[in-house]
Amino acid sequence: MTDFDCSDIDRYLGKPMDFSPLREAIAPNDIRRWVHAMHYANLAHFDPDTAAASVWGKLVAPQSFAIATDDGHGAAPACVGRIENSHLLFGGDEWWFYGPRIAPGDVITNTRVPFDFTVKQTGFGPTCFQRGDNNYANQKGEAIARQRSTSIRYRAAAGGDNVKTEDFDEPEWTDEELHAMEERRFAWVQMLHDLGNKERWWDDVAVGDQLPERVFGPHSIASFATEWRAYIVNTWGTMNLRKQDLEGLGFTREMAGYENDPDMMKVNPFLTDGAYYGPSRGHLFAKYARRIGMPRGYGYGASMGSWVTDFLSGWAGQHGMVVHSVANYRGPALTGDVTIQTAEVIDKSVDDQGRQLVHVKHLMKNQKGTTMCTGTAEIALPRKTA
Length: 386
Description:
The chain is α+β, with helices and mostly antiparallel strands. The chain has helices spanning about 30-35, 50-55, 155-160, 175-195, 220-230, 255, 260-265, 285-290, 300-315; strands spanning about 85-95, 110-120, 125-135, 145-155, 215, 320-330, 340-350, 355-365, 370-380. Helix content is about 20%, strand content about 25%.
């Protein structure tokens, strides 16, 4: 695979990277904007009365929010090093959560360290699977979470060569189908309302239990754009941005553009908006999506990982939390598609810290049954007899 040279990555491995610090502390509306964009209708994270009556006694962010404070959607340490004429997709992540929640007034830092990479043959030809760690902490020095992200890098030409033309057109939904989808979506929201701030007991969960399904969509350019804006970095002026060399990563000048370029932001900020220019525009414009192998507008990998965390932590309730999760992305959320999440309890245990854990296997599919994400997680719940 000498014509797909990934050796430049070696010089970055194990070395902390620069990060772009937030200019202001987290604000309440940063959190509200996030849960709205992630389709996470949990009142505890946006409604003042519910937040005040919660176990936290105030508004706090959901566990998924840490990634919203990063300047690269959590992918930055997994995409260093030059690979000539290449494209990149977010391939999945693994999370470890330590307990502290992010709240208004917090200032979040992220220590990022490229971890490793391997090259394999896939349908895209030689493909680099590259990993890096994000270590999120607050202003008190409390560790919030570690995220180990995986990027998938492949020859630029391979993306366009692999696009499925039969998927160019969005599915059409009848009014009856949309109404049925609305009812399925609200069933999960009703579960959140019913649980409220009550405990979900570890004792009451059994191996083989199925978590209530979560359904949302259809996705659209509007919903993806809403997600894009919920990542704090994607609003002008919110971070002291580090200089990124997108061409240095192997993107052509046309695709690289000036996405989040701190110098260009002071000259022509429109050119720095990744929703319209640069590698990220493929999410919203089919013309560019097809150049990297996607048939039409597609969702963000970081959002998909957040959907997993929200799905599991919503079920756990305010007294529980996701302590570890793995999400392997298998296919994107495309415009017009619906996302369906399910999970099954596969084990229960008590770890060496004395936490009562529920082990689950989770799955994300679209309306056609196409797998979007697979993985496992451990969720800590309170015990009646503790």
